[in-house]
Amino acid sequence: MKIVNYDKKFVLKKTLQELPKDEFSKVLNYESLVKQDGDKGLRKVNELIGLSSPLEFKVSKEEILKADRNLDEGLKSSILIAKANIESYAKRQYQTLKLSSEDTTRGISLWSEIRPIDRVGLYIPGGSAPLFSSLLMQAIPAKVAGCKNIYVCTPPNEDESINQAILWICYILNITNIYKIGGSQAIFALANGTESIAKVDKIFGPGNLYVTAAKKIVSADVCIDMPAGPSEVFIISNEIKNTRIIAADLLSQLEHGSDSRAVLLSLNKHLLENVKVEVKKQLKGLARQNILKESINNLVLINFKNIDDLINFSNENAPEHLIIPDTNLASLLPKILNAGSIFLGELSPESFGDYASGSNHTLPTNGFAKSYSGLSVKDFTKSITVQTSSIEGFNELSNHVITLAEAEGLDAHSNAVKVRKEIIDCKDQHRSAFVSRFTNETKIYTNINIDGSGSFSINTGLSFFDHMLEQFSKHGKFDFMIEAVGDLEIDEHHTIEDVAITLGEAFKKALPNRNNIKRYSSIETLVMDEAKSVVSIDMASRPNLTFSAPKMKPYVGDFPTEMFEHFFISFVYTLGFNCHITTSGKNSHHVIESTFKSFARCLASSLLIDDSAMNSTKGHI
C-alpha cells in the first residue's frame, strides 16, 4: 500500500498474469488428454494434479433435492431476492435487443430476430470461496435469453459434494446438467464434449490462471464470454467523511485473491492519508488474512492535481469496478468513458453489484472495459437480420444494386437482380407485402397478396378469429399468411387489435399508390340465414368508419365480441379509407361472419385495377 503523486509518466502495472511456459505446456497436455479420452482423460488430468475423481461426474437428482432440504432458509430468502433483481434487469435488457420492422428505403423492410444460443457452458469457481453468486449472474441471463441447454461445471469438495447453494440455485432454475469437475479440464470438456459432458457453443465464467489459459486455448474453436483477470476496483473521492466506506470498499475487492487490485484516485491528499490509516485498522478484523496480506501490496492511493488528469487516468485504465461515493462528483458520469460497472453515491457499495442489486458482476478486467461490456442477456443470444422487399422497394433499389455489383465485377450478383426484374415485367399485377409488428404484448407477422386466390395460413391463437380471417381471405381472394404470438393468458384485446393494425399496414404497403384502382365499391350485400351485412367503401377518401351492428353475447367461441367493431376501426384507420358497415341479425356468430365476408368482397372490389378510374381530389392518399 502506497501513496503516489501522479505525473504523466506514471503507469499502473498490469495485474493480468499468465502461466509460466512449463505450466502452460501442462495445460496443453490436459487438453489433448480430454480430447482423446473424454471422461477417462478427465480422470487422468485429475490424477496428474493430485485430485480424486468422483464415481459419476454428473450430479444426481437426489443430491439436488438434498440441497433443497438442507440449505439454510435465511440464505434461500436472500438468494431469491438476488434472483428477482437480476432477472428483472435481464428482462429489461432483453427488451432492448428487439428491433421492430422499419423501412430503410420505402418498400425495403428490415428488422432483427433474437435467438438464444442453444448450448451454453457455465464455469462456477469452487475451492475456498464457492461463488454461487456467479451462478446467479450467468444462469439467469441464460434463462431469460431462452437457452435450452445449460451445462454447469464446478469443482467438488474433498468429499465429492458440491456447494449446497450452487445446487439449490440450479434447483430453482431447473438446471439439471451439473458436473463435478473444475480447472482447465472442465473448460476442455465443455469445449470438446466427453461421454458425460456435452459440447457447448459458448463458455462463460471466471476462474484461476489455469481456467483462463484453457479458455484462451479453446477460443479458436468455441466462443468465450470475455478475457478474465484478477478483480479490481477504482474509487474516485475527495470527501474526508467517506474515509470509512472507501477503506471498506477497497478491502472488499482485495479479499478476492492475492492478485486483486484496488486504487483510490483523489485531489485530496489528506483523504489518501486517512484512508491508508483506516485500511490498516479495518484489515485487522477481516477473516481472509492470508490473501489480504499479499493483496494489500496491490493497493495504490494516487494524488492528482486536477480533475482532468484524474478522469483521463481512470479512462485509460478502464477499471472493472468504479465507485464514486461523493454526491458532488456524480456530474463526472458523462466523462467516464471506460468502466465495467459504476457505483454512484455513498450508499452504493460494490458489494450490491456483486450479489443482489440486479446488475451483473461478470465484468471485463485489466483494461478490457475499453472494448468489452459486462455480461448481459445479449451475450446468450444471437441477432439475425431479416429483410423483405415489396415491388416498390425492389424497383427503387434494383438499378443501384446492379450498378454497384457490376462496378465490383460481380456479375452473378447483378444477374440475381436482373432475373427478378424480368419476372416482375412479365406480371400484370404484383401487389404484395410482408409486415411484422412487435410490441410488448404481441409479435405479429403478416404476408399478403392482394391479387391472390384466397389461400391462407393463419394462426392467432384464437380459433374463431382465425376462422373470420380465413373468410376475409377467401371472399376477398386475398392470400394471407398471419402468425401472431400474443398475451392470450391476460386478454385477447392486444392480439386482435395488433393483427388488424398489421394487416392494415400490409395492405397499405402493397398499395404504394392508389392510382388506377376502382376506388368505389358501393352496397356490397351478403346474407347469412337471418343476418344481413351491407358495406360501402371509398378507397381514396379520408379515413372514416361508420359502423352499426346489433348487441351480441359477450363471446362467440373464444372471440370477445367487444372487439368486433374495434377490429374494423384499427384496420380502416391504419389503411386509411372511408367505410360504412351496417349489419343486422340475431345470431352473434352470423352477424360477425356475414360482416367479415361482405367487407372482404367490398374491399376486393374497390382495389380492382381500373386504368379508367379517377383519383381522389381530397389530397389524402
Mind explaining what this structure looks like?
The protein is α/β, with parallel strands linked by helices. Helix content is 40%, strand content 21%. The strands form six sheets. The protein has a six-stranded parallel beta sheet, with helices on both faces. Strand 9, helix 9 (243-254) and strand 10 form a beta-alpha-beta unit. Helix 9 (243-254) packs across helix 10 (269-283). It is elongated. The model is unreliable at 617-621 (pLDDT under 50).
Characterize this entry briefly.
The chain has 621 residues and is of the alpha/beta class. Strand 4, helix 5 and strand 5 (149-154) form a beta-alpha-beta unit.
The main pleated sheet reads as:
6 strands, parallel
Number of strands: 24
- Hey, roughly how much beta strand do the residues contain? 15-25%
| Helix residue percentage | 40-55%
Question: What's the arrangement of strands in the largest beta sheet?
Answer: 1-11-10-9-12-13
Radius of gyration from CA coordinates? 32 Å
Secondary structure elements and their pairing?
Layout: E1 2-5, H1 21-37, H2 39-48, H3 61-70, H4 73-97, E2 99-105, E3 108-116, E4 119-123, H5 132-145, E5 149-154, H6 164-172, E6 177-180, H7 183-192, E7 202-204, H8 209-218, E8 223-224, E9 232-236, H9 243-254, E10 261-266, H10 269-283, H11 289-295, E11 299-303, H12 307-317, E12 321-324, E13 341-344, H13 350-355, E14 381-389, H14 391-407, H15 411-425, E15 432-438, E16 443-449, E17 456-459, H16 463-476, E18 479-485, H17 493-510, E19 520-528, E20 531-538, E21 544-548, E22 555-556, E23 559-560, H18 564-575, E24 578-584, H19 588-606
Parallel strand pairs: 1-11, 4-5, 4-7, 5-6, 7-8, 9-10, 9-12, 10-11, 12-13, 17-18, 21-24
Antiparallel strand pairs: 2-3, 3-14, 15-16, 16-18, 19-20, 20-24, 22-23
Helix pairs in contact: 1-2, 1-7, 1-8, 3-6, 4-5, 5-6, 7-8, 9-10, 14-15, 16-19, 17-18
